[in-house]
Amino acid sequence: MTSAGSVVGHEHLRLFCALRLPDELVDGIERWQHEQLAGGGRLVTHGNLHATLAFLGRQPASELPAIADALRAAAAETGEIVLSSSRYRETRSVGMLVLEDETGEGARLAGRLFDGLERLGVFEREQRPWLPHVTVLRYRERPRLRPPVPELGSFAPSDAAVYMSSLRPTGAEYAVLEAVPLGG
Predict the structure, then answer these.
(1) Confidence label for 7 from pLDDT (cuts 50, 70 and 90)
(2) What is d(CA 103, CA 98) in angstroms, rounded to the nearest whole number?
């Protein structure tokens, strides 16, 4: 984890908030990626697998403490989040493992976070509801894969975090700037 103070000097940061996943679950997703998705595009690496809550885009570095506070406040009220793999879905540029939010707590967390981020003026909620998912594949041309859904069982996120995304020629690199516990 990086402290918010270490980003001083960056005028703007590319930020998002996400649920962090247990290491053993990420290991299972990574095995499934290599077995089922290899050759379909660029696999998202182990360290970049997460369940996105809100993508904020470029934000002034000075907003980071308030964004972390909004995530902390939303996460403090969260009950047990239980997720499971539901289906594979492709958009024009990514393949994702869509998750089932078994308790509905993930959606409630996302809603509270959206409210807090909108009050800060750093986020505009989409018209469609939050879709819990893990981006597992990136591509230029849609591969139209139909892999079986990995059998991961039900799982709980380890915590939530504000991430910084740095774009590189080899793909995005993510760094946790602030991690917060779920349920306070």
Answers:
(1) low
(2) 15
Q: What is the strand order of the sheet 42-43 is part of?
A: 42-43, 133-138, 94-101, 83-90
- Nearest C-alpha neighbor of 111 from the set 184, 165, 119, 100: 119
Using alpha carbons only, how large is the chain's radius of gyration in Å?
A: 16
CA dihedral 52, 56, 62, 67 (to 10 degrees): -50
Nearest to 123 by CA among 158, 71, 178, 181: 71
CA distance 79 to 38: 36
* Per-residue pLDDT at 6: 54
> How does pLDDT run across 143-161, given as a tens digit for each residue?
999 999 999 999 999 899 9
- For 49-107, write each residue's pLDDT tens digit: 999 999 999 999 999 999 999 999 999 999 999 999 999 999 999 999 999 999 999 99
Q: Which residues, in sequence order, are CB contacts of 115 under 8 Å at separation 6+? A: 74
Residue 141 CA to residue 18 CA, distance in Å, equals 26
83: buried, middle or exposed (CB in 10 Å: 19+, 13-18, 0-12)?
Answer: buried
